[in-house]
Write a sequence for this structure.
């Protein structure tokens, strides 16, 4: 049987985490202590970090040489007609009392890069690997947005247990949303997303206990339509920051080559 969960926005996801009734718990989302492995001491801490950011994630992101750049804002002029009113000009009786896009404004629409990141990782995977991959993702986002493209970020978790499959998906950043570094850091550069939040999804999505919260997996067919897919963490691909950057960049290079072919 396939169990599926999808949240089309971060706000929807956090609301579900706060309000959905869990059917069981095997010392997973609500485990106390074990901070290093799960990213925080308690479930309430995890929810608090979702609102205010996580210091470990922020430090990891701050260590990245290339910072994420925001998409350029459109430039506006005034004219007799336009998209919305310029209140001071209207009050002054000026005929050019409407805002209109400037002739030198950058295009409002820009190509969208859809990135899917499989957060799955075995229990023995060191949390530092997750942190390293998150920082590498931030570096890649910077390069993509610096080239004038917008990014859509989707975190997924794929798992298996006996004859069941588990496919969780959360849109962390929609293309039109500004970069929220606290959110991106929390999701991709701490173990909280996997070992607190996605465990919680398992607890409210399945009616029975799943031993070990399932086996980490990656289902290629579930990632159709993505421009870049980062599979689940395995081996030593993210054991150091340099190795993580090389791994993420290699995946991006392969994706762009396929797009060009």
């Amino acid at each position: 049987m396939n169990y599926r969960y999808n949240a089309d926005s971060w706000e929807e996801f956090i609301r579900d985490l706060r309000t959905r009734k869990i059917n069981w718990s095997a010392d997973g989302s609500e485990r106390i202590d074990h901070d290093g492995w799960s990213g925080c001491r308690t479930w309430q801490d995890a929810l608090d970090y979702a609102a205010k950011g996580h210091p470990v994630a922020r430090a990891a992101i701050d260590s990245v040489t290339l910072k994420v750049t925001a998409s350029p804002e459109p430039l506006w002029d005034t004219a007799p007609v336009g998209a919305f009113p310029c209140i001071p000009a209207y009050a002054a009786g000026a005929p050019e009392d409407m805002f209109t896009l400037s002739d030198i404004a950058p295009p409002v629409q820009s190509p969208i890069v859809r990135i899917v990141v499989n957060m799955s990782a075995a229990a023995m995977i060191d949390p530092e690997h997750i942190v390293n991959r998150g920082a590498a993702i931030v570096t890649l986002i910077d390069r993509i947005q610096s080239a004038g493209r917008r990014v859509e970020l989707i975190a997924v978790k794929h798992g298996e247990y006996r004859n069941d499959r588990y496919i969780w998906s959360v849109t962390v950043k929609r293309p039109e949303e500004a970069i929220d570094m606290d959110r991106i850091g929390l999701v991709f550069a701490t173990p909280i997303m996997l070992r607190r939040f996605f465990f919680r999804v398992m607890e409210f999505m399945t009616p029975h206990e799943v031993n070990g919260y399932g086996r980490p997996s990656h289902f290629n067919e579930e990632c159709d339509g993505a421009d870049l897919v980062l599979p689940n963490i395995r081996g030593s691909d993210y054991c150091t920051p340099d190795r993580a950057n090389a791994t993420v960049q290699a995946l991006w290079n392969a994706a762009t080559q396929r797009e060009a072919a």
The two ends are 37 Å apart (CA to CA). The chain has two domains: 2-68+110-260, 74-107.
